[in-house]
Amino acid sequence: MAQKRNFSITTPRGTLSSVTGKNGKVTVKLEWNPGFGREKSEGFSKAQAFVDSECLRLMNPLAPRRTGFLIESATLGTVVGSGSVEYLAPYARRQYYEHKSKRKWFETMKRGYLSSVRKGAARFIAN
């Protein structure tokens, strides 16, 4: 089973300033923003959790349903924030590729909702 992803941003964003002295010598000073890495890592983690939960929510009506166990197996098998949606049902792979009318429900979900999922994830990263 997948584990929640930990993002690590090691290059902090900073400011660059230059000063020209009396003799024409240029001195450049780089000041780092110490909170940049932590803030961006948190944003990426929240965005990944959003994408995972949205994929589960949007694929729910598109997946085949007889007893509802297939849908439940995705909810139980997925660690939200891991970047991987996993189905625990032993027949999930076969249903995904061979179902007559509802096969490849992830691809169907992407065709209809990719832009809205991207926009939603971007909101977490932009902060």
Question: Any overview of this molecule?
Answer:
By secondary structure, the chain is mainly α. It has helices at residues 36-59, 69-77, 92-98, 105-126, and strands at 14-20, 26-32. The chain is built from four helices and two strands. A two-stranded antiparallel ribbon has the order 1-2. The longest helix has 24 residues, at 36-59. The two termini are 30 Å apart.
Helix count equals 4
Q: Give the strand tally.
A: 2
Kindly name the structural category. mainly alpha
Termini separation: 30 Å
Task: Tell me the series of helices and strands, N- to C-terminal.
Answer: EEHHHH
How is the biggest beta sheet arranged?
2 strands, antiparallel
- Overall pLDDT: 86
Poorly predicted regions are none
Helix content: 40-55%
Q: What gyration radius follows from the Cα positions, in whole Å?
A: 22 Å
What's the arrangement of strands in the largest beta sheet? Answer: 1-2
Shape: elongated
Strand content: 5-15%
How are the SSEs placed, and which strands pair?
Elements (H helix, E strand, L loop, with lengths): L13 E7 L5 E7 L3 H24 L9 H9 L14 H7 L6 H22 L1
Brief description of this entry?
The protein is mainly alpha-helical.
Keyword list:
mainly alpha, two-stranded antiparallel ribbon, 127 residues
